[in-house]
Amino acid sequence: MARFWGFALMAPAVLALGRARMRDAMRGVVDVVDNGFVGHGIAPRADEWTAKKPLRCFQVASPVMTPKGLVVDDEIIDFQSSNSSSCQVTLMDHVFANSYGQPFVANYEPPSCAFGRFLASRVIVNLTVVSEGRQYDRLAVMWLGDTEVWRTSTAEPKAHPGIVWTYWKDMSNYISLWRQPQTLIFDLGNLVNEKYTGSFNATLTATFIDEYLPGSQAPPADKIVPFSALRSSQNLGSAFTYPDEKAQSLITLPRNIKRAVASIAANGQADEEFWWSNVPEQGVKTFPNVTLPGLGSFREVRLWIDGGLAGLSWPYPVVFTGGISPPLHRPLVGIQAFDLREQEIDITPWLGLLCDGGQHNFTMEVVGDNDAVVHRYWVLSAKIFLWLNEEGSETTGSTPQVKVTEPDVKKRVSSSPNRCLKYKQTISRRELYIKSSIKRGEGANTTNTSWRQKFMMINDGYVKNGGNFQQVKALYKGEDVAEEEHLMYYYTSYQYPISTTYASKGPDWQYSLTLDANLTQGMELVVNGPTAFPNGIEPFTYKLREKHHGINIKTVRGGHAFFYQLNGGNGSGGFGSMHQSYALGARGFIDIADPKFVTEPLLYSRNVTVVNETITQDRQYVYMSGIGTIDRKSPAQVLVPGDDDQFAPMRTEGRGSSRVISGDRPVDHGKVLANPGALPPPVQVYRRETEEPTDENLGDVLDKLTDELKEELKEEVGKDWEEEICEKLGKR
């Protein structure tokens, strides 16, 4: 970290020196800081960061078990547990250039190697993408027919030799879809012209495995029903663009359902990409000639069935790779950037209504402050996982009883016109409770089922300098519970803290924009019971002596970046550092409703530090590893100003790139890069270790931020803001 903070402190002064003198000054900083690294015993590995090869980008996530072993990114980090039969099929090999409204479309047929020679019960998918040039980050969605199976996004490329990333996803929960012919659609909208030159060369493969990894997740659903715009017959993706489109479908379900779970995929784009930093409506006109993004920093996705409220989803504040400041996210991308998580809603209490053989109206909406319809736009889709009884059986039941509390939104806003805006938005209680009685077929007992959700949030913000400076400190927190006969069988809790400071300035001499940004963001997630998705415990179950009922994940990333832009966006560069800690733990039944992080045992952890596009430290621990703990260290790369094609330009209204751009005439997207080769052999081990790591810093920053915000939630709502800074400024 020492090297980066040297850059960060000197960068504004150095920028004023001019291009040539700037290089000399930066080299001076590098020489000083390098001595510090050597003094701390970090040995150079020049071959890794000076070689002319694509920069490998990655997301820190739980490992996936492949036929070759336990895999993270492009590396095998532990040995395989068995010698199960498997086969691999290439689903897509495609270049996304001018691809808005032109997704990749193919006819998928279940491969005979997977459903003939043996009957596959696991499917893992690998996406590898190569790109070079200048381009924004782009949202991408994979569909099997009209059912969304993966929502991801791209990293922002750079000039030759560009970037590459690999991500693995366990899609065994969609096995009922994989066993049938499908229209496979991969929708990655991109634009290539004289200014935005980066295309995305994407390869998608599926590995089918004759192996079932038991875990706490539910067995794969017998049937999956899409709730989407149903456009696969037109060779298009089926996401709703809300509020431009009404997110509504008439759906007929089977009569013999045992359990039903809806999952919602939702994220904001364009004016809603940074919804978590939006200000209350009272403050949108604080500065002349600027309208700040409004409707507050609360967003809620509501699921309705035949006019009744069936569930709520509170989205994760994903920061994509162009968000806030691009150097924050290269090569270590943000939490969920490559794999956006869906929220599950158990709709089993609605089976008495849904199993009548008729059509039912499913609707989604996204609202902000005061139930207002959000700005443009949100990308929405959903699906319904169904577990069925035997054919001929019919589920009946009572009409669900729904109780819901209104969001007790409390806002305090203090502003001084054309000076600053300070605000606090809280929701201390938002609850939903649904119950009914259902009977699963003739002769079955009548059982009481229920679904319960609760949510709270706090968001502190401060804006000044005409909107060019913003500070946000926020926490979003919730719990979901499914019960039968008053016994809890599914539980999830989630905490999403985020803190950022963003200051932009421009124009200044040849620099049309300079930007200084800090970001700390985390996620604490507990999932216990029969989830519809793989949860990360599956690769470790053969090592565990006892049955475990769930997992918890705790991760936090924090960093600082300096970004500059030249000639109105025709050139750009920057410096950045980021550290992330990640831990995956198993949970026993006794901890089913405990939101605290427990490790029974710790299954996987990773601690990564990145400075100026170089991984300076990367330590990974795997429970009962056959390889050992992986511990790598490298010196930071020297990023000398002068390479002015490092990033896509920032939006003039700030806070990052946009995935929706109108371009000039299209041009040839240029050279198509070769696909990377097969998986490398297992990584070299620097230190063998059997005990769990004792990283005292794991989550310390996250815990401190979360505790501070929880205390603020307990404060008296009627606090007098007469002495706050904006009021003081207004009186001067």
Automatic annotation (TrEMBL):
Q: Which domain of life is it from?
A: Eukaryota
> Which InterPro entries does this UniProt record tie to the protein?
PNGase_A (IPR021102), PNGaseA_N (IPR056948)
Q: What keywords is this UniProt entry annotated with?
A: Signal
Note whether Lipid metabolism occurs among the keywords. no
Provide the protein name. Peptide-N4-(N-acetyl-beta-glucosaminyl)asparagine amidase A
Task: Extract the Pfam families matched here.
Answer: PNGase_A_C (PF25156), PNGaseA (PF12222)
Q: Where is the Peptide N-acetyl-beta-D-glucosaminyl asparaginase amidase A N-terminal domain?
A: 81-400
Where are the annotated coiled coils located?
Answer: none
Signal peptide span per the entry? 1-16
